[in-house]
Amino acid sequence: MTARQAVSSLVADGVLERIGRKGTFVSSKKRAVEGKRYRFVLLIEGDGKPSLDPYYLPPLIEGFEQCIRAYGHDFALYGYRSAILDRLLSKNDMICCVLFAEAEVLYSHLLLDGKYRVYAINRSAAGSRVPFVMPDNEGGALAATEHLLSLGHRRIGFIRGIPGNIDAAERRQGYLRAMANFGLPPGPEDGDHFVEACGHEVAARMIASHNPPTAILCASDLSAIGAMKAVVEAGLSVPADISVMGFGDFPVSSFLHPGLSTVRLPLADLGAAAATEMLRLAANEPVEQPVLPCELVLRETTARVRQAAVRVG
After folding, report:
1. In the prediction, which pLDDT does 140 show?
2. Opening angle at CA 208, ends 256 and 187, nearest 5
């Protein structure tokens, strides 16, 4: 069951209701909760605050919590550090681990070995024993790179995310796979974060090089914003001189000028899908491991390469 199907099912059951032009909300009608009441715990990086960036975790958390509370269960949000040091978890809890790096993967395995009931959002490239739902980061980056290639770009730079980050690694793989499928070597790569400052610094270096890229794919919308600023500061234009592509489709992306072409992360659906599978886990039913697609969102920062910019070899 996809996240969208899960939400539609909740609407059909009267648990959620759709309000035109506003969104989908927990129904105002009271619904009896059958069976045992559980506490569903979402574990995130750091101290439990969405510190990775202001856009990634909030919709994911909201999608998860809304689905859980719709069925009358309790919800708690902890950081891994607090959960460990303060012993906040109970064997009666249903635990969802948001995996960003191998440290969280290790902790999810320790919980599983400790006989806790665990599910995960994301998976380790090395494999995981914990069932999971994940976004198709690799497929999204593949599609983004193929879009740039279809516009005639051959020298495509890539601004990476945080080293060791699961999402960043998968997006890089999608970029590399698209370039290899087209018989091209990867373009210049650099970067160590998802934030604007990283995108700005890396793009400035790429533009100043002896053979600058005609397009730049960024591992995050935020680094793409920084890259766009670097292009303008170099006296160039986006997309006439250099195309820029982001990843995330965060709310700010549609308000930029020009509007940022990007890859949409299904964050709210990701949270809802994890919650749906965990409700099955609580009922001792088999769980699935859905991979949610990341779709292209094309706006104004990508364009066909200028013929003068095409290089042979």
Report:
1. 98
2. 80
